[in-house]
Design a protein that fits this description.
alpha/beta; Helicase, Ruva Protein, domain 3
């Protein structure tokens, strides 16, 4: 609605995990580098945690985007509330594996055949499971068994568990000691600081078509948005989007603290924008 008014090609603050808009704060760049290193070095298990809205899913999609032109097969599981069998079937489908039957043994054997064949062709395979804190212990144990698929020297499949901080608590369960010991890389993604948040806003505006050097958000508005979002990207997007809409509704070319406050009230259902 406000895109043309502000000279933008598209909406800059969607909450969907579009890798084109990823902003590499120091922490996000470190996490991205850890993921790539773990996958390309065939480290087996990798664990990425972060608060809700910290940018974990966007980060994973950016990694997948980076890997898509290389010798890497990828499978992404977005719904972890699956049985062990359903999980194996979903992984096989994502990798394009044709199974002779759909029982657990054939799924496992089919995956093993595929991984060995692709390994000998020079391919790597990565499985990313988002919202992994929702996995139950039985399914996690099945995932551990997948990590046993290996040669004498290297893992055939790299498994990335991505989740909220509760994932760390889940993996500390005594029954998952063997899995926990196999996690070679751990990274916790934190929120943006005030400076990073301003750079994040400018970055997303630029990707969406804002001319270089322009930023409709005044410093006081950025301070307010930072205070209310705590630097969490998803909340920043929500408040920035509502603020631009509020400015557009008032025929303003900028977002000041008052506009940001009104947008926050609207987004929280406290009040409607006044005239």
């Amino acid at each position: 609605m406000y895109e043309e008014y502000f000279g933008l090609r598209e909406t800059p603050f969607n909450i969907t995990p579009d890798p084109r808009f990823i902003f590499f704060s120091r922490k996000h760049l470190d996490a991205f580098s850890c993921l790539l290193y773990g996958i390309e070095s065939r480290k087996g298990f990798i664990q990425i945690t972060g608060e809700i809205g910290a940018g974990k899913t966007t980060l994973c999609r950016a990694v997948l985007d980076k890997l898509k032109d290389g010798h890497t097969h990828t499978a992404l599981i977005l719904n972890p509330s699956l049985s062990e069998l359903h999980l194996l079937r979903t992984i096989a489908e994502d990798l394009g594996i044709v199974l002779k039957s759909r029982n657990k043994k054939e799924c496992f054997d089919g995956l093993n055949r595929f991984l060995l064949e692709e390994f000998h062709k020079g391919y790597n395979t990565v499985l990313i499971i988002d919202e992994a804190q929702d996995l139950n212990t039985k399914t996690l144990e099945q995932i551990r068994l997948l990590s046993n698929l290996e040669t004498n020297r290297e893992k055939l499949i790299q498994i990335v568990l991505v989740g909220q901080p509760e994932l760390r608590e889940t993996l500390n369960h005594p029954s998952l000691a063997q899995l926990r010991q196999r996690v070679t890389i751990r990274f916790h993604l934190t929120a943006l600081d005030r400076r990073e948040m301003e750079e994040y806003i400018v970055h997303r505006l630029s990707v969406a078509g804002m001319p270089e050097g322009l930023n409709p958000f005044l410093p006081q508005a950025i301070d307010f948005i930072y205070d209310k979002s705590d630097g969490v990207p998803r909340l920043i997007n929500k408040l920035c989007d509502m603020s631009l809409l509020a400015a557009y509704a008032r025929n303003l070319r900028y977002v000041d603290e008052k506009i940001a406050e009104e947008a926050y009230s609207e987004s929280e259902g406290v009040s409607v924008l006044s005239s």
